[in-house]
Every structure is written in structure tokens, then in C-alpha cells.
Amino acid sequence: MDKLRRVLSGGEENEEVGLTSQMMDGTTLSFGTRVKWFVICFAGGVLCSILGTALLFLPKAGVNLFAVFYTLGNIAAISSTCFLMGPFKQLKRMFEPTRLIATIMMLLFLVLTLCAVFWWGKKGLAIIFCILQFLAMTWYSISYIPFARSTY
Predict the structure, then answer these.
(1) Which residues form a coiled coil (predicted)?
(2) In principle, which of 70, 130, 136, 147 could form an S-S bond with 52, CB 3.0–4.6 Å?
């Protein structure tokens, strides 16, 4: 709308648009660019999760590295959808009443996993939180499938 207003008023077309305006406008990236960055971010998340699983079997720091890489992988996978629909729309949809509990549980277990590794130093608790993180991510993902909510 601002671009149309500038063109009609005779303003310069090269005028910089503010950061807030760009963030609110989810169409600043082309569809192809959005899909490319979605794939890159999602693949990075999957790679982090696989790397974390491989690091699980290291003698001393294996569980800690697993928990950190697994959590980073899940954060990257969630963030990847921001490229498809934009960050504000993603946050709006995450906190809709139909998936509010799933979102809170998912974010809670992400944080608790990192707390168990860095502050509490409990490796067993970190593994339990990673399992709960997986279940919460599954529930969160299923909440986006139409009519899937009616099955639980």
C-alpha cells in the first residue's frame, strides 16, 4: 500500500521502507526465495537433530551435546515455517486457542531441556525432557493438520 501511495503521490520509488513495515509485510520475499530458505532452515534443523543423536554416544559430554543439538534442531525446524508465512503470522497461529496448550508445552520442554543440561547438570532429566520435547513437537505439528484435532 505504501508503494502505491508513493507512486501516486510522485514520491521516489527508491525510498527505503522501515524495518517494521518490512516485517509486517510478509510478501517482501518472493515465493521461490521463501521456499528455498524454508528448505535450508528445515534441513539444518534435521541435520542438528541427527548430529545430536550421533553425539549421544560420546563418553562424557555426549548427553549434553545431544540435548543441545536436538533442541537447536527443533528450534530451527519451527523457525523454518516463518519463511513460508512470515514471523508475525506464524506467532499468531502458534498462539491460537486451538493449539495454545501444544505450543506452551513445546516451548516449555525446549527450555526445560536446556535448563537440565546447563543449570541443573542432570543428564537423565535432559533425556526425559528430550523425549517429552519430541512428543510435544508431534502434538504441535498434528495441531496444524485439519480435522486431526478432532481425533484427540
Answers:
(1) none
(2) 70
Instruction: Please give the Cα distance from 26 to 32 (Å, whole number).
Output: 14
Taking the C-alpha atoms of residue 49 and residue 138, their distance in angstroms, rounded to an integer, is: 15
Residues 6+ apart with CB under 8 A from 121: none
| Cβ-based neighbours of 137, under 8 Å, separated by 6 or more | 74, 77, 106
C-alpha 75/C-alpha 138 separation (Å) is 14
**Contact at 8 Å (CB) between 49 and 70?**
yes
**CB distance 133 to 74 below 8 Å:** yes
Amino acid identity at 83: F
Distance CA 141, CA 104 (A): 13
Give the cell for residue 62: 555426549
